[in-house]
Design a protein that fits this description.
single chain, 28% helix, 279 residues, globular, alpha/beta, five-stranded mixed β-sheet
């Protein structure tokens, strides 16, 4: 059987790589991309079968631009993974914190370690593209004065020494990753959906939608409004729904459709598990 090809933003041993392996298993080929847009394009262009994309973090919030990529490329959500993010300060073998002048990492990882970094105001923090790529760069260039904030997989793959473990501010720190396809795949046993819709500015319209969902015992686990570019005071609502009976969800969506416009089902899939980032 041909190995699945999965595109990610980042490189081997990044958190995207770990999330992909947690969902698909270890026997996959990772297709590296230098941006979220590029990871989508690699799948749409046939270089990858699937794409794994971070969508929100429990500390740093939602990555709204990634919802736009899902819409722009007409992708479908077919699954999700909640990955516990444990971040460590690491450097080359024998590195000590007193020898470090620079700290490199992805901007989201830096935000998640703000309390730790406040203890070292003399260190120059630089936001770069990917945690694992930062580790590889320090190894390849032998940057003895530079530390990296990254995860266990990056430390192991690129031979880094962990100087400080678990430096994330919030210890139950999770990132939600979506599993995306450019094909309409029906997921057996789906019990969760991501949808988007718009409303007019009439009073109580959103409440009417929420009431319909409640009437059919549909659990609304996320709702976020996003301004529509060029249309003041108009918003798209991003909503995640969970259910016990698919028939109840179908009926509720039929009724919600009548109260909204531009409703789009981004995907129906199985609710993801919470897993650690250790492989």
């Amino acid at each position: 059987m041909r190995r699945k090809k999965v595109s990610i933003q980042g490189i081997a041993a990044s958190f995207h790589d770990v999330a992909a392996q947690k969902f698909f298993g270890r026997s996959i080929d990772i297709i590296e991309a230098n941006s979220f847009r590029s990871s989508c394009e690699k799948m749409v262009n046939g270089e990858a079968d699937y794409c794994v994309m971070a969508i929100e973090n429990s500390t740093a919030g939602t990555i709204l631009t990634n919802y736009q990529f899902i819409t722009d490329y007409r992708l479908r959500v077919i699954g999700e993974v909640y990955l516990q993010i444990e971040l460590h300060l690491m450097g080359l073998n024998g590195a000590k914190i007193d020898d470090i002048e620079f700290i490199h990492s992805h901007p989201m990882a830096i935000r998640q370690c703000d309390e730790f970094l406040l203890r070292y105001p003399d260190k120059k923090v630089l936001a770069l593209n990917d945690t694992a790529e930062c580790a590889r760069n320090v190894r390849d260039k032998k940057l003895n004065n530079t530390a990296v904030i990254a995860g266990d997989a990056a430390a192991e793959k690129y031979g880094m020494t962990i100087m400080h473990s678990n430096i994330e501010t919030h210890k139950r720190n999770y990132t939600r990753f979506l599993i995306l396809s450019d094909k309409n795949i029906k997921i057996k046993g789906a019990n969760k959906a991501s949808i988007s819709f718009q409303l007019d500015n009439s009073p109580r319209n959103l409440k009417k939608v929420v009431d319909i969902l409640g009437d059919y015992w549909i659990n609304l686990t996320k709702i976020q409004s996003v301004p529509i570019v060029g249309r003041p005071n108009e918003y798209t609502f991003l909503v995640d729904l969970e259910w016990s009976k698919y028939e109840d969800y179908e009926t509720a969506i039929t009724k919600v459709l009548k109260k909204t416009f531009n409703l789009s089902i981004l995907g129906e899939y199985r609710k993801g598990k919470f897993v650690t980032a250790k492989l």
